[in-house]
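User: Run a structure prediction on this.
Assistant: Running it now.
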Amino acid sequence: MPRYFIGMYQPQGVVPSDEILGPVMRDMGAYMGELQAGGKLVFSNGFDQSAHPSVVTSDGTSIDVTPGSYLESEIQLGGFTIVDVEDEDEAHAVATRLAEITHLPIEVRLFADRP
């Protein structure tokens, strides 16, 4: 089956209150359980908001580590899910459900064929 990346984007530095985030996390957990029970979930997790990203680059002779995201933006990747599903329509169905739960933009990308 094709494997898809489902990315969830959120405003940078915005952490919803517990009364807003609590029901979202409950519903996300239930939905991830459904995907896992159906054999479709490969992996899913959000990022620790207290940890700061960094970018590692190399020009072939030296390594540079720069604090912050690769692209400057007010929106950041907040977490991701990897699923094995039949096709793009099913991947979009997963993304649709996540958008309904979180009210956040959700990106869908097909992974390259695996050997």
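The beta strands are 3-11, 41-46, 54-58, 63-67, 75-84, 106-110.
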